[in-house]
Structures are given as C-alpha cells and as structure tokens.
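Incident review: delayed structure delivery

Summary: a single-chain prediction request sat in the queue longer than the usual turnaround. Root cause was a stuck worker, restarted by the on-call engineer. No data loss occurred. The affected request and its eventual output are reproduced below so the record is complete for anyone auditing the incident later.

Affected input:
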Amino acid sequence: MDTPIPVDSKLPDVGLSIFAVMTRLALEHGAVNLSQGFPDFPCDPELVDAVHRHMRAGENQYAPMPGVLALREALAAKIHRLYGARYDPATEITVTSGATEALFDIISALVRPGDEVILFEPCYDSYVPVVRLNGGTPRFVTLRAPDYRIDWSEVRRLLSPRTRLLIINSPHNPTGSILEADDLRALAAALEGSRVVVLSDEVYEHIVFDGARHESLARHPALRSRTCVVSSFGKTYHTTGWKVGYIAAPQALTAEIQRVHQFVTFATNTPAQHAYAEFTRTRPHYDDLAVFYREKRDRFLELLDGSRFIPIPSRGTYFQLLDYSAISDEGDAAFAMRLLKEHGVASIPTSAFLYASEAPRVLRFCFAKKNETLEQAAARLRAV
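Output delivered after worker restart:
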C-alpha cells in the first residue's frame, strides 16, 4: 500500500461546515430544514425566462472580468438611487461569483501576514478562515444578546497600528440586528486618521423591518472612501444557487480586488448577469422585499406562540433567533442535534458563528420558506 503524502493543513481545525451537515441530516431524518439560508419557493419565472433569452441570443461566453458593463451600470444607478453614492461602473464595481467570492477577493487583496482584522462575533463563517489563510490575525468584538449592539469603546480599544481591515455586517447574520446612523458616525470617528479599510457585508440590504432604514456604508461619505461594500443578487431575487454577487469600492481598492478576482473565477455567469441587469433597471423587486419577509417573520412568530422558545427580535435578514433556555441547559450544538433527530426541525447553533466567546442557549432558524413549511416546523417546535 502506498504511504499517504503528509499534508500540513492551512486550516487544520476546519471541517465540513455546519450548514452542510445540518442539511444532510435533515434529509436523512426527514426533518423540516430551517438551517441553511435559502428559500424553498421559486424565483420570478420571468427572471428565468430572461436568462434563457440571453442564452438563446448567444450570451454564453466569458463575460468581461469586472462584469457585464450593462449590469455594472445598472448597479451604479441603483446604488445612487438608494444611497446617494456615485460609483464609476467602469472602475469601481466588480461582479463576482457570489458574495462569498467577493469576501475572499477583498480579504486576500488587502490582508498580509501580521495584519490584524477586527470582526464582530457571532460572524458569518467564511470571514475567519480567509483571514487566517492570508496570514491575518482575527481580533473579536463580541455582540451580546438580546440586542447584539456594537460596543464602540471595545472597537477603539482593539484598534492598533497593525489593524488593516474591519469587517462589518448589516443586516447581521445570524442575529438579525442592524446598524443605525449613530453606529456609522461612531465607526467613522473611530477610524478617522487611520489606514483601516472596511469590508461592509450588506447582502441582506433590502431585508430590513419595521420602518427602519438600511444604513449602507455607501451612504456615509467619510466611510465610503475606505469601504468595500458587498452585496448579492441571490438574497434579493431568491436565486442563491446562481451565485452572483458584487463589490462597490473606490477605484484604488477596486484595482487591487480585481487583481485577485481575475485569478479566482475571472468572470461570472454571463446570461445571468444580463438578466439581472434587465431586472435591476426595470423590475426593482427589492422595493417590496422587506414587506414580503416581514410577513414571513411575523407569521413564523405567530405560529410559535405557545411554545417554550423565546424569540429574540429580528430587525433584518431572513433569520430568527430563538432562545431555548426555558427548555434545556444543553449546549447549543447538542440541543440543535437533538431537536433535529427527535423533533424533526433543523436549525443552526449560534456557536457555529463564534470563536472567542461562549455560546448562549440560542439557535438560528431561517424563515425564507413557504408558509406550509413554516407551519409544519412551528407545530413541531410547539411540541418541544
């Protein structure tokens, strides 16, 4: 038998993601899957028709490396309409193969060995591994239940001459919290005079509830000049499987990001880009998205009335945190597994988003589901 070649892993403590694990187990156990963040209902059939139309028209070869120009122009117009910010579509917008690639490109372009990166935990699970792959050191600010607000004094304490990047996410996955105008002012004041770049993950920008306004960092001039804003068509148009995202950033930052992007995917799906360009220009679906998901959130919470789970307010995203401390004192991973196997509902333990602090007794549930899916899941949760 051949002797295996030893591999010195760059990520020795990283295995299969909890999202993939829970989805696989949900299938095996016939559980209602509220774990991974994707809809179980179809996208607009006219969007599918638009992709087919562009395929038949011959738009099937490589797109330009930064993205189809018509899409970048449509995005520049949309960002200006929503946030008053002007980005040059030729030099300041990059279309990527999903927001996850966008995050990888930005971190890889900017973080070098010895650099520090400030993150707010719980945080999306791809941030930390990419920071580590590039030799960076994560520094964590903990967001605490129930409001998960940022302690800006803690941010100022962590800032140092080694800080290169600060990664922020609003609306926030997994907590559903959002940044407010005061937060942007505090961030701008904390970074004034520094060399720190901000990565602002805004993939849920159109899913903000109860009359609140999404405070994009593109809206704030002092922050815009140092910020790479990331967003995603998948969250907006119910097309997570198409994997198309984008970055809006000042020209100098964009040039560095595109140096990486060209060697990661080079270009992103061409007919999908043309279809999104059409819809971004003529079908601003995102104007109604908050109402659509607010109704789903409220329906899910109504269905949970009478259960022993305690909802933590969700102000954005399509996720709902539920506190199970009245049910069990188990750790969140153990309780999530028991909930799946014994009660038939798949969720995500918030410990999957934590690195430096202890997990509360809280699970994340996705409500981007058909009403009948939510009804089935809630009936099972009420019985716990």
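Verification: The first strand starts at residue 32 and ends at 33.
Action items: add queue-age alerting; document worker restart procedure.
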